[in-house]
């Protein structure tokens, strides 16, 4: 009998036959990318639904009239200042995350841990700001299924002869439902991101990745964290600016 | 596990070298700068009537897409991955664009229904 291996039993080593990753990226990282892609579809569906409802409405609560307070400091007349702070916090925490990944490539355990701590702090600060923002709108009377009284509602619309424009109640209700659903879904992502970052931080401190010889896990979690920042960039534009 | 380690080592030498601390902060300033421009438009140019609101909205969207590009390309490092992975992630976004086109078109029709 011949000792030659038949072609079908040969170990394949070319990129597209399972020998190694054709993307030269580790399995878990590819899966994170595809998970984020599916998550992007979910967020897009929510934001596009918001866009379609707003497009088809003759009037809508004006963002710079709804969002014009800074908790504990300014009650009125500071449009977009607070959300600007929130945006800055989230971009900043994205930077600390990417600095942590960079430190991981150098195998600098201590630096990775420090940057991850900053990222977690940034995440908590953002969540705190969002809690204040929700409290403020809820205090005004907005919630899933409820809108403020007419006197309060008048502050949020461009009035017609001192009266609320036609359909204002319906559109205010849609705004409230969409706002709490979409920022809530995003906030939930931030929350899970913070939890995952804490788990990774504990692993870094315990030396798990040092023993493994690679901080690739920090990079994968970093992808998730940047995605959360990316979604906020869109939420910020479509809820607060447009 | 060892293949993961060699992977990382391989990456470090060739591709990850392109994402230095200096470059990270560079991207941060770009993101902050774009956000500042958006605030100037929203808080100064539009209220003072220098730019009409209708013209401001497309500007916001373009600036947002710029920010998205910088986050995905540099922070998420996609720009330095193999071209196959880039396409695998970017091409499905066509579905999102499709939904945007369908629903904006549809919503113009809804206006008449809701009037």
UniProtKB/TrEMBL annotation, chain A:
It is found in: Cell membrane. The chain crosses the membrane at residues 30-53, 73-100, 112-134, 188-209, 221-241. Residues 1-242 form the Heme-copper oxidase subunit III family profile domain. GO terms for biological process: aerobic electron transport chain. GO terms for cellular component: plasma membrane. SUPFAM superfamilies: Cytochrome c oxidase subunit III-like (SSF81452). Belongs to the cytochrome c oxidase subunit 3 family. This is Cytochrome oxidase subunit III. It comes from Mucilaginibacter agri. The lineage of its organism: Bacteria, Pseudomonadati, Bacteroidota, Sphingobacteriia, Sphingobacteriales.
UniProtKB/TrEMBL annotation, chain B:
Signal peptide: none annotated. The chain crosses the membrane at residues 24-46, 58-78, 84-104. One of its GO terms (cellular component) is plasma membrane. It comes from the Bacteria. Its main location: membrane. InterPro entries: Cyt_c_oxidase_su4_prok. The keyword Transmembrane applies. Keywords: Cell membrane, Membrane, Transmembrane, Transmembrane helix. It comes from Mucilaginibacter agri. It is a multi-pass membrane protein. It is found in: Cell membrane. This is Caa(3)-type oxidase.
């Amino acid at each position: 009998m011949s000792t030659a291996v038949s072609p079908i039993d040969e170990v394949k080593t070319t990129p597209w036959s399972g020998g190694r990753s054709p993307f030269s990226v580790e399995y878990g990282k590819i899966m994170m990318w595809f998970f984020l892609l599916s998550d992007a579809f979910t967020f897009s569906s929510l934001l596009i639904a918001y866009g379609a409802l707003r497009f088809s409405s003759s009037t809508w609560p004006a963002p710079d009239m709804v969002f014009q307070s800074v908790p504990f400091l300014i009650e009125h007349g500071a449009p977009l200042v607070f959300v600007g702070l929130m945006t800055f916090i989230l971009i900043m925490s994205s930077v600390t995350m990417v600095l942590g990944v960079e430190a991981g490539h150098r195998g600098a355990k201590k630096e990775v841990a420090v940057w991850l701590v900053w990222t977690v702090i940034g995440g908590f600060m953002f969540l705190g700001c969002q809690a204040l923002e929700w409290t403020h709108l809820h205090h005004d009377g907005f919630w899933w299924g409820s809108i403020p009284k007419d006197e309060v509602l008048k502050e949020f619309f461009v009035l017609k002869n001192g009266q609320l424009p036609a359909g204002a109640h319906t559109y205010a209700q849609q705004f409230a439902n969409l706002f709490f659903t979409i920022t809530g879904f995003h906030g939930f992502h931030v929350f899970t991101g913070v939890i995952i970052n804490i788990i990774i931080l504990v692993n870094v401190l315990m030396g798990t990745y040092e023993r493994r010889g690679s901080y690739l896990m920090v990079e994968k979690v970093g992808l998730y964290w940047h995605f959360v920042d990316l979604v906020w960039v869109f939420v910020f534009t479509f809820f607060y600016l447009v | 596990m060892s293949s993961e380690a060699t992977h990382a080592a391989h990456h470090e030498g060739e591709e990850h070298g392109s994402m230095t601390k200096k470059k990270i902060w560079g991207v941060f300033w770009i993101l902050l700068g774009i956000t500042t421009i958006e605030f100037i438009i929203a808080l100064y140019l539009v209220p003072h009537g220098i730019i009409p609101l209708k013209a401001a909205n497309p500007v916001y969207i373009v600036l947002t897409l710029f920010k998205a590009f910088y986050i995905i390309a540099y922070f998420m490092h996609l720009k330095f991955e193999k071209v196959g992975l880039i396409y695998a992630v970017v091409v499905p976004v066509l579905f999102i664009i499709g939904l945007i086109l369908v629903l904006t078109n549809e919503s113009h029709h809804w206006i008449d229904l809701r009037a």
